[in-house]
């Protein structure tokens, strides 16, 4: 096994320049070897991650350079940590959170600590996606919609008989799509995520929708992805902060969450000419909350307004947190 000093001399000048400060911060001498746990702790929590957009890859390049160094030195486990997808995901998240310099680190810590415990695809995911697959199957190869673009009555009745929305919410009546909000929320979301598309007077599955219907994991990723439905930078930041808030608290009340994240967003975003930051953020939070209703993300707490994210809801929040950070990090 080569020592780190000899391995460092074998690196090209640019790689060596990236590695030297990191080794100093790791407090590693030429005759010392940092353990894999120490390397992971440094990269995940201590490596400076600038928010400057002109240097967005800096932290990732340092991690890769350290990986090259450790590989040359025969430190296989340490090199693997530097190259792991989880490490680079964490660096992206930290860089995105650094774009909110006025927010104390404690706000992000619960979400950061729990991120590696949140699966990309939760167990028994088919239970969450039953409504989405049911709607895609009902559309089939395509069906004629009403003049206002809503689903035909017979399809609404058939879906309600299958999923019993009006039994869970007795004040609803399966006369029109608009009369069953969970169905309307779901249809709008699948359309805006480009799994369904309006073609003239017909609603049809897209190629992406047909492919997603064949694989649970693919459909889940398409449903929980922020984009394309929410693509504006403000919307994505709102969703990312919302996800962090949800992962910090046991309950999810859209109004309370919107108030909390407004103070976070206000330091980075100014009010639009026609809407306050709170109003703009509230709309995004409410829409995301509504998506989770037909997808079974919420358990009822102590009252009708008290919604608690279950395993599906927390996994969805984790997916949003990752996606927003990947875009910004």
Describe the structure.
There is one protein chain. The chain has helices at 4-10, 13-26, 36-46, 58-72, 76-83, 85-97, 105-115, 125-139, 153-163, 165-168, 181-192, 207-212, 216-224, 233-248, 254-266, 277-292, 311-328, and strands at residues 143-144, 196-199, 202-205, 298-300, 307-309. By secondary structure, it is mainly alpha-helical. It has 2 domains: 4-98, no CATH class; 102-329, no CATH class. A 3-stranded antiparallel sheet has the order 1-3-2. A two-stranded antiparallel ribbon has the order 4-5. The longest helix has 18 residues, at 311-328.
Short description:
With 329 residues, the chain is mainly alpha-helical.
Write the layout of secondary structure elements.
Elements: H1 4-10, H2 13-26, H3 36-46, H4 58-72, H5 76-83, H6 85-97, H7 105-115, H8 125-139, E1 143-144, H9 153-163, H10 165-168, H11 181-192, E2 196-199, E3 202-205, H12 207-212, H13 216-224, H14 233-248, H15 254-266, H16 277-292, E4 298-300, E5 307-309, H17 311-328
Helix pairs in contact: 2-4, 3-5, 3-6, 4-5, 6-17, 7-14, 8-9, 8-13, 14-15, 14-16, 14-17, 15-16
Name some characteristics of this structure.
single chain; 329 residues; mainly alpha; 2 domains; three-stranded antiparallel β-sheet; two-stranded antiparallel sheet; elongated
Task: Count helical runs.
Answer: 17
Oligomer: single chain
Strand content: under 5%
Compressed to H and E, one letter per element, the order equals: HHHHHHHHEHHHEEHHHHHEEH
Quickly give the structural class.
mainly alpha
The separation of the N and C termini measures 35 Å
Name the poorly predicted regions.
none
- Using the CA coordinates, give the radius of gyration: 24 Å
Helix content: 55-70%
Tell me the count of domains. Answer: 2
Query: What is the averaged pLDDT score?
Result: 88
Please state how the strands of the largest beta sheet are arranged side by side.
1-3-2
What is the overall silhouette?
A: elongated
Q: How many strands, which pairing sense, and closed or not: the largest β-sheet? A: 3 strands, antiparallel
Number of separate strands: 5
């Amino acid at each position: 096994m080569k020592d780190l000093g000899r391995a460092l001399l074998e690196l090209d000048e640019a790689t060596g320049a990236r590695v030297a400060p990191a080794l100093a911060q790791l407090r590693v001498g030429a005759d010392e070897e940092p353990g894999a746990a120490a390397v992971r702790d440094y990269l995940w929590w201590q490596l400076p991650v600038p928010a400057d957009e002109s240097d967005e890859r800096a932290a990732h390049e340092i991690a890769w350079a350290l990986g090259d160094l450790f590989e040359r030195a025969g430190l296989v486990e340490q090199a693997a940590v530097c190259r792991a997808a989880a490490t680079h995901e964490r660096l992206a998240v930290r860089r995105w959170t650094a774009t909110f310099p006025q927010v104390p680190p404690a706000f992000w810590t619960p979400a950061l600590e729990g991120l590696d415990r949140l699966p990309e695809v939760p167990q028994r995911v088919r239970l969450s996606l039953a409504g989405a697959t049911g709607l895609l199957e009902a559309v089939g190869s395509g069906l004629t919609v009403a003049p206002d673009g809503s689903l035909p009555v017979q399809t609404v009745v058939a879906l309600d008989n299958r999923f019993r929305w009006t039994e869970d919410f007795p004040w609803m009546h399966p006369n029109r799509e608009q009369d069953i909000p969970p169905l309307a929320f779901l249809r709008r979301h699948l359309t805006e995520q480009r799994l369904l598309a309006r073609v003239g007077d017909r609603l049809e599955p897209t190629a992406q929708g047909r492919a997603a219907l064949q694989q649970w994991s693919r459909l889940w990723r398409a449903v929980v992805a922020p984009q394309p439905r929410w693509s504006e930078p403000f919307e994505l930041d709102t969703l990312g902060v919302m996800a962090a808030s949800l992962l910090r608290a046991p309950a999810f009340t859209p109004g309370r969450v919107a108030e909390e994240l407004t103070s976070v967003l206000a330091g980075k975003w100014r009010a639009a000419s026609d809407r306050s930051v709170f109003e703009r953020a509230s709309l995004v939070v409410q829409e995301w909350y509504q998506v989770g209703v037909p997808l079974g993300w919420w358990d009822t707490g102590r009252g009708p307004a008290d919604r608690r994210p279950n395993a599906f809801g927390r996994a969805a929040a984790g997916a949003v947190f990752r996606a927003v950070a990947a875009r910004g990090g």
